[in-house]
Amino acid sequence: MDQQATANDLYLTIWQHLHANRQGPAKKLFAELSQIAPQWSETFFTGAYIALLAKAYPQALKGFQKTLQQKPRHLTALAGKALCLLHLGEFTGAVLMANKLLQEQHSDPIYWHMLSELFHASGELDSYLNCCEKLTTLIPNNANMLANLSEALRYTGDYSQAETTVNKALALAPGNATMLYNRSHIRKQSKDHNHIEPLKTALSQQPASQHQMQLCYALAKELEDIGDYQQAFSYLKRGSQIRKNNSNYTVDSDIATMAQIQATFSRDNFNSFTTGHKTEEPLFIMGLPRTGTTLLERIIASHSDVFAAGELQNFSGVLIKALIQQNPGIKLNKQQSVQLANELNWQALGKSYLASTRPRTGHSKHFIDKMPINYLYLGLIAQALPQAKIILLQRHPLDACYAIYKTLFAQVYPYSYCLQDLGNYYVAWHKLMTHWQQCRPDNLITIQYENLVHNTEATTRELLQFCKLPWQQQCLNFHTLKTSVATASASQVRQPIYSSSIGKWKHVEDELAPLIDILNKANIPL
């Protein structure tokens, strides 16, 4: 057998392993392929894909680019390049490439899977749905593809079809914990129509800890839906403990960082910073997660002059890039980053942020950046974008903390899985928010979630006036807005406003005792 034939056989075997998610054997055979055909375009492409799976994005990008030097129309390599660019912070270029590739008629599932990941990560949820639909056509009767399609349908508001689709996925993969968890969150469960017993059965089979955790959170959600708060909390406590046990997180680092931010961006030195980029285009909504930020976003985004851009990671992205450029070769920790941030060129930072949001933004007078954790960068945002409006949403401390504690987040908010961590984090957050309110009264407004619910029109009028927007009645019909939502409140915000979430913590007051004790000792008003 000649060398190229051997390379072809190796290539086919490697991809059989990759399609079956057997990365170990694939890597071993790839080492052989690299020796036999080191300059072959498909060797470059295969190596790039293996690097992509390992999240080695610079290495993957290099491999995709080498593939494209030999085959400029290698569509899957183009999709891989776009995905790498997104993960490396080149948001604008990545989305522009992906939008062009979306028009191609290509039959490679990996191509569409890469694009689906890109559109999901960038918040382009209608395009994500498009890719998921394409994948279920190319790979019919595949449980994972159907599960992804179900999530995409949920994001776009088609709850009935989302539940039908995930049930098809579960028929192919009975007992899959991720799918069971996702199904529980598509709609509010009722006493006559729920999945509590099947979830308990799945949990009794002692699956891996990750799956036990998902099943516990699913049970907690469904049991709360039917009003069994104590049993719900018992599963919530069990699930959160599993998550905590598999984490090396300590809350002290986050508390120290917030204290450092407060000391660095003091009220006295705020006016000493250079002037930032003057634009009124961004509207920032920030606050703790699960405190109504998505509801508030949809109310304001119902205005004809406003586009909801979603939870953008762009500000932190351009900030990190600027710090690296200013301090090359230095590995910065959180506290050092805070100290060095006040030496940045504010105008350049503001311009970089705005440019990084394109092409998702730029087609409306204003856009909303609803990344909750931007509260850590509030002082930076106020300096880099001094004309941008900042809306800080606050909620009753115990309702806020309970809502956070019962949510299973994906790789974020690690303080949320322990009541003591949550309480201590909240105390530090409350101090920092009080500090911001004292420092930046002009372009910052604080809104109480309870006022938004009980006095929706008056609060909305106040907000629109603050944002220099004329009143539009349609802002009160936010639940009819057609835009997609990927946050934990995707289902709730398509309902008319309701008050049933206010005071829900009282159902589990005894269970929340460790948290309440911490907040009382810090004199947080309850």
Write a structural description.
This protein is mainly alpha-helical. Helices cover 58% and strands 4% of the residues. The protein has 25 helices and five strands. It has a five-stranded parallel sheet. The longest helix has 21 residues, at 419-439. The mean pLDDT is 91.
Q: How are the SSEs placed, and which strands pair?
A:
Blueprint: H1 3-19, H2 23-36, H3 41-53, H4 57-70, H5 75-87, H6 91-101, H7 109-122, H8 125-138, H9 143-155, H10 159-172, H11 177-184, H12 196-204, H13 209-225, H14 229-245, H15 251-264, E1 282-286, H16 293-301, E2 306-308, H17 314-326, H18 334-341, H19 346-356, E3 366-369, H20 378-384, E4 389-394, H21 397-405, H22 419-439, E5 444-448, H23 449-454, H24 456-466, H25 513-521
Helix pairs in contact: 1-2, 1-3, 2-3, 3-4, 4-5, 5-6, 5-7, 6-7, 7-8, 8-9, 9-10, 10-11, 11-13, 12-13, 13-14, 15-18, 15-22, 17-19, 19-20, 22-25
